[in-house]
Amino acid sequence: MRFNTGQTISFTLVAFVLCFVPTTQGQIDITLDIMLEGDDPTESFLFDQVGEPSAPSRLAFVGYVESHRFDIPTRLRTAFITAPDVKSPLVTTLDLHSFTMPPISVDTGLVRVPINFHTTLNHTPSAAGILVEGLGAADRFHFTGSFSASPIPEPSMAIFLTLTAASALLRRPRCAGR
């Protein structure tokens, strides 16, 4: 079976799209929206994904936290974590932040403290997530945002497909009589 140049280019473009469009396998995209209250309230969220030691990945969280205390400031800590799997006690902390939020006041109302975290890892962990911890005796705060983790497509396949397309364009058709 012979392919002409147009068929070869079409096939190469379809293969390029199939290889380079990230799939949903291994991706995490979760919206968190919780109210934490009490003495040192703590919540951790660790999500499964398909781990790959040789494939880079991106982790991100965009959201905010707001105090719901009228009388005293609220202290809290956030940590972005990865693990070999969701049941593993071996957790790696990527980013740890502690901060204090002012109490609600008549002048300012609720104060939202933005949380933005973005990092690129040289591997895709089997589990990734976030930990939120109140650091006071009587905390009350709202934590909300979007957490995502996704593998980064490898450029090596693009180089191969580009060379394949270029060779198809440069190849000249052969005539039967020559």
Q: In words, what does this structure look like?
A:
β4 and β5 (92-101) form a beta hairpin. This protein has 2 helices and 8 strands, in the order αββββββββα. It is 17% helix and 45% strand. The chain has a 4-stranded antiparallel beta sheet with strand order 1-8-3-6, with no helix packed on it. A 4-stranded antiparallel beta sheet has the order 2-7-4-5, with no helix packed on it. It has helices at residues 5-20, 156-170; strands at 28-38, 42-48, 57-67, 74-83, 92-101, 112-121, 127-134, 139-151. It has 2 domains: 1-21 and 153-178; 26-152, Jelly Rolls (Sandwich), CATH 2.60.120. Residues 17-24 have low confidence and may be disordered. It has 178 residues and is an alpha+beta fold.
Keywords:
178 residues, alpha+beta, 2 domains, 2 helices, 45% strand
Taken together, the total number of domains comes to 2
Q: From the 3D coordinates, which CATH architecture of the largest domain would you assign? A: Sandwich
Spans with pLDDT under 50 lasting ≥5 residues? 17-24
Order of helices and strands, N to C?
HEEEEEEEEH
- Strand tally is 8
Report a brief summary of the structure.
The chain has two domains: 1-21 and 153-178; 26-152, Jelly Rolls (Sandwich), CATH 2.60.120. Helices cover 17% and strands 45% of the residues. It is built from two helices and eight strands; from the N terminus they run H-E-E-E-E-E-E-E-E-H.
